[in-house]
Amino acid sequence: MSYPEEVGTQRLILRRWREEDRDAFERIWLDPDVWRSLRPGAAFDPGYGARRFEHHLGHWAQYGFGLWAVQQRADCEIVGWVGCAHPTFLAELAADVEVGWTLRRAFWGRGLASEGATVAVSTGFDELDIDRLISLIDPANEASIAVARRLGMRHHSDVHHAPAEGRASDLRVYALDRHEPQR
User: Fold this and answer.
1) Distance of alpha carbon 119 from alpha carbon 101, whole angstroms
2) What is the torsional sign of CA 87, 93, 97, 100?
3) What is the DSSP string of 30-86?
4) Which terminus, N or C, of the chain has the lesser number of Cβ atoms within 10 Å?
């Protein structure tokens, strides 16, 4: 597999996370709007970002692909993440590949999530031996649902998520098959 560690778009550099990015990754999780959109109803946990950073470094090491840091070309600031990864937090979907995206609140509404996710979808299908990509989205996260739809994804099913901490909830599974046209 030759999954790229770095790719670019007109406005973004998407690259593999490095140890020196730890503080930037944790700052994303410290954004209250990010926390609410990804962990609705869960009490804020200031150590959660550090654990997720370790998880994503480990995912790259184990599988040879994972989420990329999203850097703006203009100033190289890390503003979020995007990419493909196994959703190992849900046993029934852990073998699937999820395309995910998250940006700090200050960068919402600029089309950056769609720009990065479009590259993640095409790279996932080009480089991974998969016929389908999914995205797991809280039903109240209208902005992420809009990104999924712009990618050509459709609501496929719902899955119950009962995290070790926080409240249980349902997540919508959006899916895109390899042979469906990406919008």
Assistant:
1) 11
2) negative
3) H-HHHHHHHSTTPPP-TTHHHHHHHHHHHHHHHHS--EEEEEETTT--EEEEEEEE-
4) N
Q: What length is written for the chain?
A: 183
What tens digit of pLDDT does each residue of 76-120 get? 999 999 999 999 989 999 999 999 999 999 999 999 999 999 999
Q: Beta-carbon neighbour count of residue 153 at 10 Å?
A: 25
- Integer Cα distance of 86 and 6 in angstroms: 19
The first and second tokens of residue 131, run together, are 């016929």
First to last CA, the chain: 26
Domain 6-177 indexed as CATH 3.40.50.1820: no
The single-letter DSSP state of residue 111 is S
Q: Are strands 98-103 and 78-85 parallel, antiparallel or unpaired?
A: antiparallel
Q: Which of 113, 66, 107 is closest to 86 using CA atoms?
A: 66
**Rounded to two decimals, what is the model's pTM?**
0.92
Which residues partner with 67 through β-bridges?
83
